[in-house]
Design a protein that fits this description.
heterotrimer; A mainly alpha (288); B mainly alpha (302); C alpha/beta (450); B: 302 residues; mainly alpha; MetI-like fold; two-stranded antiparallel sheet; 13 helices; 2 strands; C: 450 residues; alpha/beta; D-Maltodextrin-Binding Protein, domain 2; 2 domains; nine-stranded mixed beta sheet
């Protein structure tokens, strides 16, 4: 076809154009993040009067120390770690066990149960918010990090249904013969799961774990409502409070330092695990 | 011997299944299903959220909901956001996904990492950041635009009745693309390259390959993504609105999620807030079902 | 049911802390001035005789915000010295309203509560039947100096359908603020009525400065600082119109006073006197622009000087006008705001609570308050020699002077306040007309009456 000759320069042109667009988007993505870090090192005067893309005239690293101790960001950070670690651990445990059985064992009501879990992802978080209070308070778990962990792992924010949804797909993709072989070897059901299935599902667990970690680390609504003791605030709540208090004190530098601190762990985790996430998503995609 | 084994086999199997399912189910029922039902229950009462008593008022809250002038505005805004987010996010996500997978760029890995950044940042951070970007006098946007104009640009993006709701789009879209891009990338990678090779040999252009191979084969993922965007927008707009406009000016950026919060907690009508919550649930369900129907195609087995 | 209530309360508290993020009813001034000097301590007088013994447990809840907690600690310390048999517990902090909410719902409140800060609303507390009816008691109550309590107040206890549940502790006024130095330097005349206000605004605009800025995110600033006084002035200086609005009476908005005031607002809008950046802007941002002379005037409350103390430029001198919409030769109208103190209906130690109230409403305490917070306590006192800020002293002169009408304290319900806020912004942006504004408010009032 006579297209072949024209293809080469055309392709080159569109390739360059596409490259340009990709670069442009990179700037749009990175700039706000960079700008946050830059602003976190500026002092108030410069923020208010200078240009946003100026470099800080003086590097005010003390904004970080400031927000860490005086604004209690260090406490918030610790609380977030506790809550996130606890919620993910619990969610993975419950999710993996449920997903395994749903994926590999046939029993009455299997379809219904699966549907219920997946459908529950649609429940608006805010609807469940109000009654979750009734509940936590009745259980004497209001204003506690443990209560928050429970709410995150099995409550209406949906990380459990997501885990189940994803892991079912994952388990389904494993070869069927595994259980048969293991049974012949005399393994118990529990043994099969814990010694064979669980290790095999590590990639899936990592993917789900990371995605849910992002959700929980950044979760704001539940945390603000369920925790009212300032000592127990998590990072997103701390940021929102800082932003509100900002209206009285106009301390831009520390506010942005807080934003930066909030972003750093998540970025690091993502950088480390990003291969697994995409890899896991591939499997999920096949079964989606 | 064999039958005995079989019976004990059946029971140990049952026990195993139950032991693995029950704890999750119990906790799930307690923390997800029960609050849902309670929310529904609360909507039949009149409670400020502060007093020790609440009165049963039957369907009055629902009647009030239907007569509430602000609800249609909120619904309109919710769907406005849903519509544009779906279009813009999927447009960008698919474009980037295709660009990164089909063009065999060297920097693929770098882009894949970086483009996901906005998704990993907390919505709170995004809201605060973008509020500042939109600040009429101090913000990045106006200062940037002023470079090209003779007098300084001082458009009040978040305060203008006409622009405000549009101004909520860029942060939402910006923060959403990365995740869906990854999903689409993953499903494109699952397409055997032989299909593309064969098409190239046949002389099909990139665009043709895209429309005849890529799109149909990623359609499932595409559909799932669209539905996911819809659900998260209907549920999650609350945070962005709260941080950036609080529903203003004059309810021009009001959304159901924020209205629930405003009614429930700022205007002391907690039970009415619960009613709005029920509305959100119904709206989500209906929209999802409709989309599911509309977007369904035969899944192409490879 | 009770347990459920607790749960929801906890929820409510938390959400109210979200409300805190969103915007408080009365943003409190930030900096509390320097360390208290011990010169004018309130002397511990003898406990009034023929009273039941003040003893047992006593708990007081107070919000700590811009006013700080220096004054509280001082008076509570002295109160304790006066009644050594009393076991006093203080529940205080910036999030205290949220933290204490569950106790209120459970029916286990503290004895005395200072109602201020994010998440607090005294009208709601009255509606929720949480406060003690003090109508009869307050009539005869005397402070520890032997003076009738009510006589010494600037603003009387709020009237809820003839009953009293709260006593205003902090008093202040809304008004229009400006920089005296700026006006003097530019030769601008400080407005005394509507005509002079329009005239000087034209001058200011011609000089390249925005005449008027307000915080669009919190429209109650401009409602309090500009509109309400206009309503009263247009209503023949009868502040009853505001009480009617509070009571959601029919036609409390659909009348000439409201209409003519709204038209004045439209006039300002059409003449371009408002800074367009106001919309969507929060109060500190608008105040910063005011301090930097981007804008000449701003509606605000007497906490302004303290709130912005860290950012006030050299030479800036706060000027205050209670109202600008009155006709030439007419009186000023001062729209007050108050933060109230109340006794819980279920207080366990009501005698101690009453004794505490009697203890703090004295002239000396008022002077100490002014010195420690820079703001005004709701007690008539001679502040000239005190450490109150200049603008506060200026305001006091207006209140004490003959040609200022001080309106009674009033507060719209949350729903009506929201409706008025929305309508004001819409009017200022030209998306609705004054008639539509009135229409909306009448609808909101009708709903309130149901």
């Amino acid at each position: 076809m006579n297209e072949t000759k024209a293809k080469v320069p055309k392709q080159l042109l569109s390739r360059s154009l596409i490259r340009f667009l990709l670069l442009l988007w990179t700037v749009l993505v990175l700039y706000p993040v960079l700008w946050t870090f830059l602003t976190s090192l500026k002092d108030n005067v410069q923020v208010m009067q200078g240009k946003p893309w100026d470099l800080p005239t003086v590097l005010r690293f003390e904004n970080y120390g400031n927000v860490w101790s005086r604004a209690h960001f260090g406490d918030y950070f610790l609380n977030s770690i506790i809550v996130t670690a606890g919620s993910i651990a619990l969610c993975l445990l419950l999710g993996a066990t449920t997903a395994y059985v749903l994926a590999r064992y046939n029993f009455k009501g299997r379809g219904v149960l699966y549907f219920v879990y997946v459908a529950s992802m649609m429940i608006p978080t805010t609807l469940g918010l109000i009654p979750l209070f009734f509940l936590l308070s009745d259980l004497h778990l209001s204003n506690s990090l443990f209560g928050l962990i429970l709410v995150y792992s099995v409550g209406t924010i949906g990380i459990l249904p997501f885990a189940i949804f994803f892991l079912v797909g994952f388990y389904k993709s494993l070869p069927k013969e595994l259980e048969e072989a293991a049974t012949i070897d005399g393994s118990t059901y529990y043994g099969i799961f814990f010694r064979i299935m669980l290790p095999l599902s590590k990639p899936g667990l990592i993917t789900v774990g990371i995605m849910n970690t992002l959700t929980v680390w950044n979760e704001y609504i539940m945390a603000t409502v369920l925790i009212n003791d300032p000592e127990k605030y998590t990072v997103p709540v701390g940021i929102a409070i800082m932003q509100a208090e900002m209206q009285y004190r106009t301390e831009w530098g520390p506010l942005f330092a807080g934003l930066a601190i909030s972003m750093i762990p998540v970025i690091i985790i993502y950088m480390i695990y990003q291969r697994q996430i995409t890899g896991g998503l591939t499997v999920g995609a096949l079964k989606g | 011997m064999i039958s005995k084994l079989k019976t004990s086999h059946i029971w140990s199997r049952r026990l195993f299944i139950i032991s693995f399912l029950l704890p999750t189910l119990a906790l799930f029922a307690l923390f997800t299903v029960y609050p849902l039902i309670q929310g529904l229950y609360l909507s039949f009462f009149d409670w400020s959220g502060g007093s020790e008593t609440m009165n049963f008022i039957g369907l009055d809250n629902y009647r009030e909901l239907l007569a509430d002038d602000i609800i249609p505005i909120a619904l309109k805004n919710d769907y406005f956001l849903v519509f544009w987010k779906v279009i813009l996010i999927m447009l960008f996500a698919v474009f980037f996904a295709v660009a990164l997978t089909r063009l065999k760029l060297k920097e693929y890995g770098f882009y894949r990492i970086v483009f996901f950044f906005p998704n990993i940042i907390s919505v709170v951070v995004i809201g605060v950041m973008w509020s500042f970007i939109y600040n009429p006098t101090l913000g990045f946007l106006n200062k940037f635009l002023s470079l090209f104009t003779s007098s300084p640009v001082d458009t009040n993006w978040l305060g203008s009745p006409k622009l405000a709701i549009w101004s909520l789009l860029p942060p939402s879209v910006w923060a959403g693309i990365g995740f869906y891009m990854l999903l689409i990338i993953a499903s494109i990678l699952a397409i055997p390259s032989t299909l593309y090779e064969a098409a190239s040999i046949d002389g099909a252009s990139q665009w043709r390959q895209f429309t005849t191979i890529t799109m149909p084969l990623v359609w499932e993922q595409f559909k799932t993504s669209v539905i996911h965007i819809v659900i998260t927008t209907l549920n999650g707009s609350f945070i962005i609105v709260k941080l950036m406009t609080e529903g203003g000016p004059d309810n021009q950026t009001q959304v159901l999620g924020y209205y629930l919060y405003q009614m429930g907690f700022k205007q002391f009508h907690l039970s009415y807030g619960a009613t709005i919550g029920v509305l959100i649930l119904i709206v989500s369900l209906i929209t999802t079902l409709i989309l599911h129907r509309v977007l369904s195609r035969e899944t192409i087995e490879m | 049911m009770k347990k459920t209530m607790t749960g929801v309360l906890v929820l409510l508290m938390a959400m109210l802390s979200l409300a805190a993020c969103g915007g408080n009813d009365k943003p409190n001034p930030t900096a509390a001035p320097a360390a208290p000097t011990k010169t004018n301590e309130v002397k511990a007088t003898e406990a009034p005789s023929a009273e039941p013994k003040i003893s047992g447990d006593f708990e007081i809840q107070y919000f700590v915000g811009g006013y700080g907690d220096g004054w509280w600690k001082e008076v509570i310390g002295e109160f304790s010295a006066m009644y050594p048999e009393l076991n006093i517990k203080e529940s205080a902090g910036s999030q205290i309203n949220e933290q204490m909410k569950p106790r209120w719902i459970q029916g286990n409140p503290p004895d005395v509560v200072y109602i201020d800060g994010a998440g607090s609303n005294e009208t709601q507390m009255v509606l929720d039947d949480q406060l003690m009816d003090i109508t009869e008691w307050i009539k005869g109550a005397k402070n520890v100096d032997g003076e009738p309590l009510v006589d010494g107040l600037i603003a009387p206890p709020q009237d809820y359908d003839g009953k009293h549940y709260t006593i205003p502790l902090v008093f202040g006024s809304w008004g229009t603020f400006y920089d005296q130095k700026l006006f003097t330097d530019k030769g601008w005349q400080v407005p005394t009525d509507w005509d002079s206000f329009l005239a000087v605004s034209e001058q200011i605009k011609a000089a390249g400065t925005h005449p008027y800025i307000h915080t669009g995110k919190y429209p109650y600033y401009i409602v309090g600082g500009l509109l309400n006084s206009g309503f009263v002035a247009a209503n023949g200086y009868d502040p009853q119109i505001l009480k009617d609005q509070e009571a959601a009476k029919e036609n409390s908005f659909n009348n000439d006073a409201v209409r003519s005031t709204l038209n004045k607002l439209v006039d300002m809008r059409d003449k371009g006197f408002f800074d367009n950046a106001s919309f969507g802007m929060n109060h500190t941002d608008s105040q910063m622009l005011f301090l930097q002379h981007n804008d000449a005037m701003i509606p605000n409350g007497l906490w302004l000087e303290n709130e912005m103390s860290k950012d006030v430029p050299e030479g800036f001198k706060f000027g205050f006008i209670p109202s600008v919409m009155q006709e030439a030769g007419g009186k000023y109208v001062a729209i007050p705001y108050t933060s109230n103190i109340a006794i819980a209906k279920k207080a366990k130690n009501p005698e101690a609570a009453k004794a505490f109230i009697e203890f703090i409403f004295t002239k000396q305490a008022a002077v100490r308050w002014a010195e420690l917070t820079g703001a005004l306590m709701n007690v008539k006192a001679d502040l000239e020699s005190s450490g109150a800020s200049d603008v506060v002293k200026t305001a006091m002169n207006y209140f004490n002077g003959g040609d200022t009408i001080v309106a009674p304290v009033f507060k719209l319900s949350a729903d009506m306040e929201q409706a008025e806020n929305d309508a004001t912004i819409a009017l200022l942006q030209g998306t609705i007309t004054p008639d539509e504004f009135i229409d909306r408010m009448e609808k909101a009032a009708a709903k309130e009456r149901k």
